[in-house]
Amino acid sequence: RGGSSSWTRASAADDVMGVVIVDHGSRRKASNDLLEEFVRMYKEQTGRPIVELAHMEIAEPDIEHAFGKCVEQGATTVAVSPFFLSPGRHWQEDIPTLAAEAAAKHPGIAHFVAAPIGLHPLMVDIVDSRLETCLNRLTGGGTACDVCDGTDFGCKMARGVAVDE
């Protein structure tokens, strides 16, 4: 997929959409950097001009800051998109609360919280691709994936050890 998104919305024709992609947040810089890279890829592949990243907690920027940056760039509606696999407590409670608090500081700006990634057919391809990459690396025929490259973890074969009960 490339170029611009075919995403449509049921809103006024003059609405300007801003997107906040939010993950949990981590104390590990490398984990937070992955969201930054994803947001860069998302902007490039969709052509959306107003896209900001946010971390729900632990790291900066937070949802309030990212929401405000969308408004500063001209967004009249802000979509908060959880970068989460499952529809758990953060999606049902925490993120909507944080988004509403951010929106309250910008009267007249509409917002909504989108569904998490969830069960999407493309997830099968992604999981299988990661497995294939690891198997190729373990058998000496491949390189590390973008997640494991440059780290000391990932794609290591371990054998179970019996534990006396």
From TrEMBL:
A GO molecular function held by the record: lyase activity
Keyword Transport: no
Keywords of this entry: Lyase, Metal-binding
Keyword Metal-binding: yes
Pfam families in the record: CbiX (PF01903)
Top-rank taxon: Eukaryota
Identification of the protein by name: Sirohydrochlorin cobaltochelatase
Lineage, uppermost ranks: Eukaryota, Viridiplantae, Chlorophyta, Mamiellophyceae, Mamiellales
